[in-house]
Amino acid sequence: MQREPRSRADVCVVGAGPAGALVASRLASDGNDVVVLEAGRRFAFEERQGQMEQAIRPGDRGSVWEMGGERDAYSNTGERTYPLNVSRVKGVGGSTLHWQGMVMRLHPADFDAGHDNADPAWPISYDDLRPYYADAEAALGVAGDSDNPFAPPRDEPTYPMPGFKPSYSDSLFAEACESLGITTHSVPNARNSESYDGRGQCVGYGTCQPVCPSGAKYDAGVHVEDAEEAGATVIDRVPVQRLETDGDGRISAAVYATPDGTEHRQEAREFVLAAGGVEIPRLLLLSANDDHPDGLANSSGAVGRYFMDHLFAGSGGTLDERTRQNHVGFITSECHQFYDDPGSGVQHVDTGETLVAESDAPYSPIKLEFLNYAGPSPVEIALNGEDWGDSMLSHIRDAYGNNIAMGGLVGQPPRRENRVTLNTSRTDDHGNPVPDIQWSWGDRVRRSVSRANAIQHAVLSELGVDIGWTANVDGGSGPAYHHMGTTRMGTDPEESVVNPQLQSHDLSNLSIASSSVFVTAGSMNPTLTIAALALKCADHVGERL
């Protein structure tokens, strides 16, 4: 394809993941001349069948989306190792090419510092983002039911599509939870429960992560195509090397490299960074110049700082009955009962025994999930085995079908020492310093993971599960690969990177649409909030054009 810059552009968007795609689609639809620069390639939809087959065979799943190598090099110098490339994608569609598809709204308390901990408030409220949440649900195509008594308030009573029915193992969990006074409810998913927006309904391949071959699960390619139909130019395989500034406190151009190494300058009136919580701060730091010696948009020193993620807590084992795991490739039931009140007790309905929190110290919100893909799948057993015919069938029957597990997320508090910096001793395929992740947990994360494990063990024990594993602070727990917080939003230019309109405090024509602007992590999957903020960002950019 032609990779030369447009001679005239109103907006240059860096990144073609969910945020960049939504920004480009909205601004192009409003008649603006938009250029999108994406570091990775465009994956043809026709490739997905082969990718699915590759994913279910033994081997390295990461290669499905071609991550790794010198292009994607990084380093760790923090207390904890952060395996950055395990779950990110560079390509048109970004992380939504392989995401799970769960789309929950943050709670009002997440924005207002309403949780009983030391997290700061956002400079916007839930009500500020509420209409954008509704727009995002319509744009992504969300299937859900209004059965969650702990959900934040909505202006519209229903989701764009009806929710998915609970799985068989959900019904097992529901009975055990009822005995403990725990409420279960459905999960909103960005996948079609019926035909929507020109895409068919989910047909149950079950390989949602890392690839949906049917297109029923939303990926940002939907809005990339919308943007192109509205006149936007999307250029793939052109990693942006740096941003250049003029003498008037504005970005003048994004300098990008083509596959043959040629550099081009894309000029525009407005620039929007939408490349995620690691690559955005890296690009700003790489763009340091005489006027901005510490990197762009970094007069506060906050670029790259307050890196956050969600920690996984989980436990599972086997049951003396069939659980029908691996029939559904995504989560259909969860529990938000411990989100706003993670220390609340769990009392057995029959015995009156109460499971109380072990500490009065603050917790992170806790989101609990009932997994539908515990244990090996029949395909995995068959492909990894050495037997055939009736022997293989017998092996599958013995090894498959009675596993069961719970999962959950707890969010990290924003810690200044958790950050993304440049490692000047190691370079990528263009000679640029690679990102270095400095990551640690802290006591609140450990306490919250342990609290989630205690609730999970209570439910599994009530169900009669022979618990065989637990992902806890001593082993198994790790990141959910939700990169947040490295260009935080705020009203004080000395403490934050962007203002409530997602506009840089330092550079008037630079905006950031990403989870990197999150002030706190909450404990909900972040993509719906990313989408809502992207639509908000697009509106503010449009007002300035």
Automatic annotation (TrEMBL):
Required cofactor(s): FAD
Keywords recorded for this protein, A-Z: FAD, Flavoprotein, Oxidoreductase
Domain 4Fe-4S ferredoxin-type: start-end pairs: 192-222
Upper taxonomic lineage: Archaea, Methanobacteriati, Methanobacteriota, Stenosarchaea group, Halobacteria
Family note: Belongs to the GMC oxidoreductase family.
One Pfam family recorded for the sequence: GMC_oxred_N
Organism: Haloarcula saliterrae
Protein name: GMC family oxidoreductase
InterPro entries: 4Fe4S_Fe-S-bd (IPR017896), FAD-bd (IPR002938), FAD/NAD-bd_sf (IPR036188), GMC_OxRdtase_N (IPR000172), GMC_OxRtase_C (IPR007867), P2Ox-like (IPR051473)
